[in-house]
Amino acid sequence: MNIQNSFLQASSSERDPLLLVLKQSQQYDVRITKVEHRELTDVHGKKLFDFASCNYLGFDCEQEVLLDKGVQAAKAFGMHTSRARLMGYHELFTQVEKKLATFIGAEDTLLFPNTTLTSIGIIPALVQKGDLIILDKSAHATMYQAAQMARDKGAILKSFAQGDMDALETLLKTHSHCPRKMVCVDGVYSMTGDYADLAGLTPLVEKYQALLYVDDGHGFGFVGENPDVQHPYGSKGNGIINHQGTSPANTMYVAGTAKGLAASAAFAAVTPEMKEYLMAYAKPLDYTHPSTPFCLGVLDAALDLLPKIGEQRRADVYKLTVSLVEGLRGLGFHVMTQTLFPIISVWAGNTQTLINASKYLYQKGIFLTACPYPTMPRGKEALRITVTALNTQQQIDHMLMLFADIKQQWQRAGVALTPDGESYAHV
């Protein structure tokens, strides 16, 4: 018996739904041979409308604007930095970190290669034996991985349901004796597009002298300050903390730049003292390479491009998102969101229904994200659609036509369009 495969046989049966979807839905392991904005061609020549991209503003296709600074940075500093950030770094890091800090209104920032390594670096470095870490149950899986690393060192790990402030306060009060306390949430929840209630969380964590850790991987670059009815995403794209009018001062705000700005990097908003500490104790800064000079050059250029075209791109996304959400709800589907952020998850309810629907959509030219258990709780399996500025109304109309077909398929098979006893706000 192959030893590698013996580990697969020992895997928990709870993973089976995920493996089934990976194998049968056709929405995974897709090999792309051609990209024309949000029209893709797979290795078999199949044309697809791309509703799986999270590059909401479409900066991933702004090569002519963004490439120049990336190439300049690579020419100046090399293609790759083959040393840990702790050992030494190019001045480009300092320039971009200062630019990010000014943009979000923080004292300073610290760059990481991506948000996964940001959480894995920061959370175990700050939360030690006897400390408390409380996770939102809907928070991103990478925060759970980081929290488990802290728990292995002796930290106390607890969780609360998204938005349940009473449960959170009970945990904070019960463990008020812990020397350090951290509460971890998503800024924008990756499965529903809902926003964390930072206005409610901030005074609560401050009351118990806890640190609020906010992962804004989806929000940064897209949502920003001064939202209103006409501009629900706000302006500038300076993140969920500015969108909700809170301050990064008492928050560990972290964000990725890949989704909003098409640059492979991430950062944390920090004080100078925290930056010095994390440079020494965050393992990804000690033992792996940082972002390449090319990526930082692209990020620098994207920050310059954002104020020039960001507002119109957000308006385009909002119009398309409203059209899609209204169309899906008009057909009777359960759209699992309380906002109009361009993450639209359509309830499927079980693994087989999810597989059948996602396979049909792929065959008809729609590329999206099928979300089975354990990505979603059992009974909340969903088809996740992400809308970007490069999608078109024609593509939205095509998808709605296909969902009308799926509605008929489900009705013939006796499959419910909505879960019993649960409804989300219609916005």
Automatic annotation (TrEMBL):
Q: Which residues form the Aminotransferase class I/classII large domain?
A: 47-399
Q: Which UniProt keywords apply?
A: Aminotransferase, Transferase
Query: By its UniProt entry, which SUPFAM superfamilies does this protein fall under?
Result: PLP-dependent transferases (SSF53383)
* Pfam families reported for this sequence: Aminotran_1_2
The record's section on InterPro entries has: Aminotransferase_I/II_large, AON_synthase_class-II, PyrdxlP-dep_Trfase, PyrdxlP-dep_Trfase_major, PyrdxlP-dep_Trfase_small
UniProt-recorded Gene Ontology molecular function terms: pyridoxal phosphate binding; transaminase activity
Q: Per the record's keyword annotation, is Electron transport included, yes or no?
A: no
What cofactor is this protein dependent on?
pyridoxal 5'-phosphate
Q: Does the keyword Cell wall biogenesis/degradation apply?
A: no
Q: Which PANTHER family match?
A: CLASS II AMINOTRANSFERASE/8-AMINO-7-OXONONANOATE SYNTHASE (PTHR13693)
Protein known as: Aminotransferase class I/II-fold pyridoxal phosphate-dependent enzyme
What species is this protein from?
Rouxiella sp. WC2420
Q: Source taxonomy lineage? A: Bacteria, Pseudomonadati, Pseudomonadota, Gammaproteobacteria, Enterobacterales
